Amino acid sequence: MTKPFLRSGSLDRLVALGENGQPIYAQAQSIREALRLKQQPAIADCLAIPQLNAQQDRIDWYAPFSGQVRPWSAADDNQRRAALTQLDACLTDVEALSRQAVAAPQAALQRFGALLRYLLRFPDMQHVYLVDGKPVLTFWGFSHAEQRSDDDPFACLRPDDAPPPAVAAPAAATAPDMPAAAPMVPPQPRAAGRRRLLLLPAIAVVMATLAALGWHWRQSTPPTRRPPLPYLRLRQCVRPRRRRSNPCRRCRWPRRRCCLPPRRLPRPSRRRMRATR
Fold first, then answer.
1. Contact 121, 17 (CB under 8 A)
2. Which residues cross the membrane (predicted)?
3. Is 91:154 a contact under the CB 8 Å cutoff?
């Protein structure tokens, strides 16, 4: 069944909350799955399902369950009072889960606990809807630039004469267990700065003396001459000439470049061969 559409908005007008550069809305599916494993379906039902568009600059929010949709401004006092009671109960459970996860030794659980602190943060009452009488938050994990993170997340939903939320009671109960802060003592002026100022003239005199001694030592020391470099004769750098081969007697060219065919000696005749025998 198609889930009802609640609202759509741009990401440029709001500030995304998160930890270590990771916004909480990008982990919406993982957070809902973790809440289901923690047996916290009431918290998951308070969170609308985000869906980014193709340009990654707008988010569409859908209700997690079907029912009649009514904005917070259109609800009566009884409906608002019942919805606010459900939200306060969810806030108490979320704070307990956050403290438990932060105290865990696993780094993944610690990051999850840090993200839970921004879970129920939303910009204003225009982003709250009642679906079948139950509160559903859109743009959770977002806030305006001027909002403070330590304020009550549901302060904009409470009437002016409403009592403070019940979630502040555990914090007040644990306050005596914390060690009392030491009284603030105004810092006394230190004399180190004055001592440094008094040492500046002495340091300047020492530097000037060293500079004068260095200049006098340079003037009194004769310049040292470097030994001349060894002289290399030109003959050592020139390759020895190759000897020319014997020139040809006919063309007077070297025998390698001689273009005339070699002279063939006359073959002795048979009579001479017989005479020699």
1. yes
2. 197-217
3. yes
Question: Does residue 248 or residue 31 have the better pLDDT?
Answer: 31
pLDDT at 177: 41
CA nearest to 135, candidates 221, 42, 228: 42
Instruction: Report the distance separating Cα 17 and Cα 128, nearest Å.
Output: 18
Helix orientation angle between 77-102 and 107-116, rounded to the nearest 10 degrees: 160
Closest CA to 137 of 153, 160, 148, 117: 153
Side chain identity at residue 238, one-letter code: V
* pTM reported for the whole predicted model: 0.56
Q: Return all residues near 122 (Cβ < 8 A) that are at least 6 apart.
A: 128, 137, 138, 139, 140, 142, 143, 153
The answer to whether the Cα torsion of 112, 172, 120, 147 is positive or negative is: negative
Beta carbons of 63 and 44 less than 8 angstroms apart: no
pLDDT digits 0-9 by tens, 113-129: 888 888 999 999 999 99
> Cα-flanking dihedrals φ and ψ of residue 185, to 5°?
-105, 130
The DSSP-derived string for 221-244 is SPPPPPPPPPP--GGGTSPPPPPP
Dihedral Cα 168, 173, 174, 176, nearest 10 deg: 130
Give every CB contact of residue 117 below 8 A, 6+ residues apart in sequence.
98, 149
Q: What is the pLDDT of residue 194?
A: 58
Residue ranges of domains in the chain:
5-173
Q: Which two tokens stand for residue 167?
A: 């979630």
